[in-house]
Design brief:
This protein has two domains: 6-145, Rossmann fold (3-Layer(aba) Sandwich); 150-214. The chain is 33% helix and 28% strand. It has helices spanning 6-13, 17-21, 23-35, 54-61, 73-85, 123-135, 150-155, 209-214; strands spanning 44-48, 65-69, 91-93, 108-113, 137-145, 160-165, 169-177, 182-190, 197-204. The strands form two sheets. It has a five-stranded parallel sheet. A four-stranded antiparallel sheet has the order 6-7-8-9. The longest helix is centred in the first third of the chain and has 13 residues, at 23-35.
Length: 215
């Protein structure tokens, strides 16, 4: 199956990303989840791989000064609209993790990278990326990142990620397992006319717990 770059993939997905993740319904849960990691001494946060801004908005609602980064410009544009709609002031920047300028070093009490962002980073870049996360932190800061349990997903051959039905469309997220990577696919089709469909794919990488702990 042909794949497209990660950036192009999320530029395309930005058109219906909020529908796919149930943005409004998910925001409250995101806020409650992040609350347990945000102590009173945390004032500034960086959200890396912010997508359409759901975690950035959750952090801002916890009274943090938030800077958010994403390699997809269309996702950034969507995130800016969502932040305005939620009355949150957030600084958004069109950078991938490794491209964040050194001027941001040691600026944040809290750095997070959620939504399986880490899985989009190729093995050759994962060490430098984790290092970049830590460089953004001030000396006593916290780093929180999330990746799916791919060891289990591959073992049980769990190909279907999610099936979402919107007002007009079905959106199905599913995997194809390859030797050194996984093809992450999103199929979107009209519920009344399934022939009106769009399928896009990109590579993700099943970084193991052992690798991440070592890093």
């Amino acid at each position: 199956m042909d794949t497209i770059s990660n950036k192009d993939f999320y530029n395309d997905v930005s058109q219906y990303y909020d529908e796919m993740i149930n943005f409004k319904q998910t925001l409250e849960g995101k806020t409650n989840n992040l609350k347990q990691f945000v102590s009173s001494n945390i004032k500034t946060a960086a959200d890396i791989g912010c997508g359409s801004g759901i975690d950035s908005i959750a952090l801002a609602s916890l009274h943090l000064a938030v800077s958010a980064f994403d390699s997809s410009m269309r996702m950034i544009e969507k995130a800016e609209i969502n932040a305005e709609n939620e009355n949150r002031i957030i600084n958004f920047y069109n950078y991938s993790a490794q491209d964040i300028p050194d001027s941001f070093n040691s600026k944040f009490d809290f750095v997070c990278s959620l939504g399986n962002t880490v899985a989009n980073i190729p093995p050759k870049d994962i060490s430098a990326t984790i290092k970049r996360f830590t460089e953004l932190l001030e000396s006593s800061g916290k780093l929180l990142f999330h990746i799916l349990n791919y060891e289990k997903i591959i073992r049980v051959n769990e190909r279907i990620v999610n099936i979402n039905k919107g007002e007009k469309d079905y959106i199905i997220r599913f995997y194809d397992f390859e030797k050194d990577f996984i093809n992450f696919n999103i199929l979107k089709f009209d519920s009344e006319n399934p022939k009106q469909k769009n399928l896009i794919s990109t590579k993700v990488y099943p970084h193991s717990l052992e690798l991440l702990m070592n890093l």
